[in-house]
Amino acid sequence: MDNLNRTEKAQVVSELQNKFENAKGIVFTDYRGLNVEEITELRNSLRESALEYRVVKNTLARIAAKGTPVDQAKDILSGPVGIAVGYDDPVLVVKKVLEFNKSNDKLEVKGGIVEGSVFALNELKSISKLPPKEVQLSLLAGAMKAPATKLAGLLSSTLTRFAYAMEALKTKKSSAEN
């Protein structure tokens, strides 16, 4: 990064800013102690879930953070920083980084941003226990569908009882006429 010229640095800042603006979840890590193989393993495990991991120069990251949700967390950008970014499910990037951290404690999780809010490590651990986005949406849909289903059942049983009552009345009248 130190050997980048001004144009290359501007391009890096622009790419980072775009990532910061579009990300649903970001996790900041200190990768000191990890060797190249371990960082590659982390990158590959994230890439399998359509997530990214990038080591960035703090000064460029701070410049890119301006006007994005990362601006609130710029004090985290000190020392060697690796940034994991997720664009679809904000919880997935947190889960994946913390899973890797369990198997390799040399990776230090410094904090993160989920849906625009900054969280410390202990809060990220709580967030990682949330079910995936698809499960949350299906639970929500089920909760919204339940009252309508109950209402439909109630109306149906009321109509059925009414129909039986009308049939009984008709049977009673026809037997009274005979």
Topology:
Blueprint: H1 6-22, E1 25-30, H2 36-47, E2 52-56, H3 58-65, E3 81-86, H4 90-103, E4 108-114, E5 117-119, H5 121-128, H6 133-177
Antiparallel strand pairs: 1-3, 1-4, 2-3, 4-5
As for the CATH topology of the largest domain, it is Alpha-Beta Plaits
Query: What's the CATH class of the largest domain, please?
Result: Alpha Beta
Order of SSEs: HEHEHEHEEHH
Query: What is the topology, as strand order, of the major beta sheet?
Result: 2-3-1-4-5
Q: Count the E strands.
A: 5
Q: What structural class should be given to the helix and strand makeup?
A: alpha+beta
How would a textbook summarize the main sheet?
5 strands, antiparallel
Would you mind describing this structure in some detail?
With 178 residues, this protein is an alpha+beta fold. It has two domains: 6-130, Alpha-Beta Plaits (2-Layer Sandwich); 131-178. The protein is built from six helices and five strands, in the order H-E-H-E-H-E-H-E-E-H-H. The chain has helices at residues 6-22, 36-47, 58-65, 90-103, 121-128, 133-177, and strands spanning 25-30, 52-56, 81-86, 108-114, 117-119. The N and C termini lie far apart (102 Å).
Task: State the gist of this model.
This protein is of the alpha+beta class and about 180 residues long.
Task: Jot down its keywords.
single chain; 178 residues; alpha+beta; Alpha-Beta Plaits; 2 domains; five-stranded antiparallel β-sheet; 6 helices; 5 strands; 15% strand; elongated
